[in-house]
Amino acid sequence: MAANHLHPLLCLALAMLVSLDFSCTQTGITSRSSLEAATGASWSSLSGRFSFGFYATEGGLAVGVWLATVPNVTITWTANRNDTGTGSTLRLADDGRLLWTGVGDHDRTIARPSRLAVTGAVRDNGNFVMFVTDDAVVWQTFESDDTLVAGQELVPAAQLFSSVSDTNKAVGKYRLANQQLDDNLVLYPVGMPNDAASSYWNTGTFDLGFTL
């Protein structure tokens, strides 16, 4: 009888291992890679859960990351949020920058890594990362998201900014700040200082000796 219960347990264990493996997988983008500007044109994570590329927004196209496994695309990151365009291609340049070329007759920098990036990848956790030759990460979208996804951290001193609307991802009226000085998570109107008089909601975790 014990043998009859072994098979489903093994299947469950294997399924968990496969799930863990996919959480770390990614697809490679090199200096030879390019992406023609068109709605939905993208590079995807290995499982296809997340995509990085062009999506339609008010005023034209934007470059971003989105959750691609639901009927309604959920945007989780947008480059240069206040700008749109109709440029020709997205490519990794020889100087390590990620460029959107031909936007209004000039190139627009999407990412400027701290060191010379030679590859990029879309990870299955929704993070688009860029690497140097030793595989060290030198730039990632998780450092400047407007949406938190599972497994992502809002590190001390980081902020999230609201969007104008569901179809316009330009910076909206509000921001969520993880305050490094007092460990408090606070909502402010955009343009207002980080003080108690300007806030309209907080977690009440100030000065408790831990960070969120």
What does this protein structure show overall?
The chain is mostly beta strands and 212 residues long. The protein folds into two domains: 116 residues, Agglutinin, subunit A (Orthogonal Prism), CATH 2.90.10.10; 60 residues, no CATH class. 10% of the residues lie in helices and 38% in strands. The strands form four sheets. A four-stranded antiparallel β-sheet has the order 1-10-11-12, with no helix packed on it. The chain has a four-stranded antiparallel β-sheet with strand order 2-7-8-9, with no helix packed on it. A hairpin with a 2-residue loop joins strand 8 and strand 9. The longest helix has 21 residues. The N terminus is likely disordered.
Summarize this, please?
The chain is mostly beta strands and 212 residues long. The chain contains 1 helix and 16 strands.
Layout of strands and helices, then pairs:
Blueprint: H1 2-22, E1 26-30, E2 34-36, E3 42-44, E4 50-57, E5 60-67, E6 74-78, E7 89-92, E8 98-103, E9 106-111, E10 119-123, E11 128-131, E12 137-140, E13 159-163, E14 171-178, E15 185-189, E16 201-202
Antiparallel strand pairs: 1-10, 2-7, 3-4, 4-5, 5-6, 7-8, 8-9, 10-11, 11-12, 13-14, 14-15, 15-16
Name a few traits of the molecule.
single chain, 212 residues, mainly beta, Agglutinin, subunit A, 2 domains, 4-stranded antiparallel sheet, 1 helix, globular, disordered N terminus, non-specific serine/threonine protein kinase, protein serine/threonine kinase activity, EC 2.7.11.1
